[in-house]
Amino acid sequence: MDTANQLASVGTFQVLKLPLAFIRVLEWLFSIFAFATCGGYSGQLRVSVDCMEKASSNLSMAIDFAYPFRLYQVSFEAPVCEATRRERVFLTGDYSSSAEFFVTISVFAFLYSLMATTVYVFFLNKYRENTRGPFIDFIVTVVFSFMWLVSSSAWAKALSDVKVATDPDEVQLLIPACKDPTNKCGSLNGPRWSGLNTSVVFGFLNFVLWAGNIWFVFKETTWHKGTSKLAAGASEKQAGTFTQQPYNHGSLDQPSEYSQVGGPTSYSNQM
């Protein structure tokens, strides 16, 4: 407790008010939301198969699926509408690559944001004194900005495909008994997509945060400081060229000497 009070008294955490550190905290928080809403998702859909032989019907088949959305591994028991025999039916599609890529970027962004915030809070002076630190920070920020854009776009496309593959109307087409017009198949419940839709939103919000933070990290590098010094020196030099010397008014007070060569002499000399 004494250590925390001492740190607060010397203003260690005042750096969190700067855009550089404040945006890092937002990146850390939003990355948690991104991988939590995607990696922790599980959904369920329900379909029904009403056979002519009512004894073999199943009016509430629950189909569960979850992250990482390898749907081809998701199976359920569907009635064949022949006595009480059933068969195993698998969903179609594998969208694990996009989902795992998105979650991986989220986790690494979370770890880097936490590490960078710790450096800003406790080692800001060393961070600014060492030219390598801001340079690495700048490069990593640019890379993560690009990776957030790519992963969020890929995951948005994969999520759209997952919605189609798990649509109850599409799942009915996979059940052989539903191809017989004498049997009646229907959809009862569809999956809830609010969590996964939120993950896509957080993905693009993270891209905006990381891309916006590029400027504030760039200001800490020697590139920006060097250009600032050059611009300041050029402005001072330009201002010096327009500085005028004091004007000598004494030259106007002194009459100029005028002498006539071969001019007329005095009257006494002419006589």
Helical fraction: 55-70%
Q: If you average the pLDDT, what whole number results?
A: 82
Characterize the largest beta sheet: strand count, sense, and whether it forms a barrel.
3 strands, antiparallel
- Distance between the amino and carboxyl termini: 118 Å
What portion of residues belong to β-strands? 5-15%
**Tally of individual helices:** 10
Number of DSSP strand runs: 5
**Low-confidence blocks of residues:** 6-11, 228-234, 239-271
> What form results from the Cα inertia axes?
rod-shaped
- Find the structural class using helix and strand composition: alpha+beta
| Sheet with the most strands: spatial strand order | 2-1-5
User: Secondary-structure element order, as H and E?
Assistant: HHEEEEHHHHEHHHH
Task: Tell me the count of domains.
Answer: 1
**What is the C-alpha radius of gyration, as a whole number of Å?**
39 Å
Q: What is the topological layout?
A:
Elements: H1 2-9, H2 19-39, E1 42-50, E2 58-66, E3 75-79, E4 86-90, H3 96-122, H4 124-129, H5 132-165, H6 168-172, E5 184-189, H7 194-218, H8 222-241, H9 250-253, H10 267-270
Antiparallel strand pairs: 1-2, 1-5, 3-4
Helix pairs in contact: 2-3, 2-7, 3-5, 5-7
Domain MARVEL: 15-222
Transmembrane segments: 21-42, 101-123, 135-156, 200-218
Protein name: Synaptoporin
